[in-house]
């Protein structure tokens, strides 16, 4: 089954996408064509969004699913009359909150992703810079500032996880790739030893690792199933030898990996 899903927002669309994706993920038998319409902030852009939704309904012969986070009441009313199943996030959540709190919301467009807390924004940017500067073991002299140092074989998801930890939680996350040289006698690189209590390991299924590496260097020893199997086995032995907490990231999203790292280590996020 195929359906179209629209994410309509007067801002970036990130909130509508996040909530929508969470709901749509529960329907595995349906393939959704997903369309994001951000910055719907005027009557003209709202009417254009309605026209696009209606055209899609006519083309598909069935109603699109429309996730809306529009704040303006007139714009919400217009979207509500489109030929789709409209799930109005603002009406669903803000109304009950107003009743419970006894306070009317500001109905201000763009508040979710506005820079209201400049200190929090600075923390996020500094953390991202740290992750980029301390990626792939290029530099290790600043590991004393790290909240966590991810270790694992090449292409096991260390870099994107570090960036997510920085962006979402404001954490200083570095990463260091362990190679064949480190596995010869199951030793940790000397540069990691002073920071052993900050290490967290990422492991991965060897077949999945070979597939990922083949996209980059097909036919190479680096991507061969035998090489990947050897590296993963040695990696896990190294984790066991030095009692490094670890996680198998094969079937996990970056979001899941990051939150599980926090849960396992007890690291406190800087951004709430």
Q: What would you report as the Rg, rounded to the nearest angstrom? A: 23 Å
What's the helix-strand series?
EHEHEHEHHEHEHEHHEH
CATH architecture descriptor name of the largest domain: 3-Layer(aba) Sandwich
Low-confidence stretches: none
Helix content: 40-55%
Structural class: alpha/beta
How would the blueprint of this fold be written?
Layout: E1 2-8, H1 14-24, E2 31-37, H2 43-60, E3 65-68, H3 73-80, E4 85-88, H4 89-101, H5 118-133, E5 148-152, H6 158-169, E6 173-177, H7 180-183, E7 199-203, H8 206-216, H9 225-241, E8 246-248, H10 254-265
Parallel strand pairs: 1-2, 1-3, 3-4, 5-6, 5-7, 7-8
Helix pairs in contact: 2-3, 5-6, 6-10, 8-9
Structural features, described:
By secondary structure, this protein is an alpha/beta fold. It folds into 2 domains: 2-101, 3-Layer(aba) Sandwich (Rossmann fold); 118-265, P-loop containing nucleotide triphosphate hydrolases (Rossmann fold, 3-Layer(aba) Sandwich). 45% of the residues lie in helices and 15% in strands. The chain has helices at residues 14-24, 43-60, 73-80, 89-101, 118-133, 158-169, 180-183, 206-216, 225-241, 254-265, and strands at 2-8, 31-37, 65-68, 85-88, 148-152, 173-177, 199-203, 246-248. A 4-stranded parallel sheet has the order 2-1-3-4, with helices on both faces. It has a 4-stranded parallel sheet with strand order 6-5-7-8, sandwiched between helices. Strand 1, helix 1 (14-24) and strand 2 (31-37) form a beta-alpha-beta unit. Helix 2 runs parallel beside helix 3 (73-80). The longest helix has 18 residues, at 43-60. The model has no long low-confidence stretch (mean pLDDT 92).
